[in-house]
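# nightly structure sweep
# worker-07 picked up a monomer target from the shared queue
# config: single-sequence mode, recycle default, output format = structure tokens
# input follows
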Amino acid sequence: IAFRERVMTAPQPIADRDDSQSDLNNKFARIWKANPEFVLVEETLEPPHDPKFMYECTRPDGVVARGELCRSRKDAKHAALENVLALPAFNGEASSGMASGSGASQEPGLVLHNLQHASIEHHQVPVEQQQQQQLHFEQNRKQEQQKEEQEHDNLLKSPNKYFFDVVYSAECKGFVDHEVQDLLIACEVAPSAHGLLQVQSIHKVKTESDWQRDRLLEWEHHIRKLQTRAEDQQFPKPSWRLQEGSSPREQREREEVWWHLLSISSRRPEQSKVWTAPIFHGCPSIGVAESIFRSGFATNVQRTSGWFGEGVYMSTSGTYGSRYALQMKDFWDCPGQTGVIVAGKVAFCEVYPVTQADNKDPLRPMQPGLKGKRIAGAPGASGCDAHFVCVRRHPPNDDHSNFTYHACEEGFRPDGTELVVNQEVQLLPQYIVCFKVQNDDRLCRQVRMAAETWGRSLCSLAASASLPTSTNATSDVKPACTSGTRNYKNDLQTIVASLLKRPVKDGDIVYTERTERNEFVSTVRVQVLNSQCFTGEAQPRRVAAQQSAAEAAKAALHVATDASAALA
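# output follows
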């Protein structure tokens, strides 16, 4: 065990750390006369917007090295391969230093001594050799960049011609039917995509293929089953439209989300209770897209306990679906890159519209309340076969290092949509769309700036700083809850604890609520301010009303603290 630990932690070569994947594969094959073996040891899929992977690589001499946790499988394998090549030889297969001159094996103690001696000699490299290694390093960097560009071009290789027909090509534009035109509009004419996102080719699966014939039969059978359930009076039906305790504003927001889905959906002629809508899902390569047609979404799009329910995630937006093909990045952040999207249809009967009201705290939109819950598990969602949510882009924060998408705040227009289905048979893949982002840095910067500021006026961006803090305010205009709104209850508790110089106990902060015109008004009593009471603005939910009252109390505590400091 001690010998294995010393081998695993031996120093690494200087110039080999940044070799490209193909160079490392060739080096491994040249040394060990075999291909590297990889084993997936860790895969994190929560949240689903930020997956990470870790691999182990094994050599023929039995040495195993583990790579770092990376955002893509390719980078994870690259890291494991780098580490296993950096380790000294375990036996006489690839290093003469592991055996004596007579061919006999050395004692373990001598082997360890030679490993230490070899490591010291490795770092005593002449200056000329270091310069050659640096030059070799720069050459590898350039070759790696060229190979990455070639790999992106390889993503757009045509699918298997025996199963797919080319129905559109950017090089040979001709007549296309209305379904292909709709795909082009969804990808090229969508907001921010015009002139930046270009469809290279569209491939349609052949209807006579075994893949599509079997899947189409399953899809039609499930549609008839959905129709039967809808007509069955004994089958559970959703009650979110009649949910008790919800305010008219909450009801309006859910209806807006539901209407957004219906506006892009159509009824089935034979099954009037069933709706169909277009769907899009990005894939990292043509191979993954083809495997979806062969074996379905379930084996390629893992069911995740995502933010909006547990199931298979799709989108009704072509541009939003492209994020899954670009390693969860927006297309304006990926100039010159290519991607693949699987397009098709989804069948549904009853859908639960997800809004900010489903969160535990409506003033904290970055904490989804349906994470990990099954489809139809939310209150009022009984009998639903899918969840649908309109999402909006949020900048990085303490919880997420990259841009993320969450349910829209009340009255905001969406940047994209997410549809979560309970059963894979509800999805019917039909097309493979190959696209490319134009290598135009200026246009990408313009689109990025528009995405970060669109719908976010100076008034709304500064709402958290300009909210009225006095309980005697006479303005009738109530500020909207924005993504920048803080958790004032936690802030108030922290301030009170610091003033009391002890943890907050029961009775230090007391909230009471009353109802006015179907809305909640909360009053908070703070003991440290001589049990003074503060009343917040009327809000559609009880927790939001408590947050408003806590905000007023927090402002009063700041004023009292500043006055005490001035007297001192």
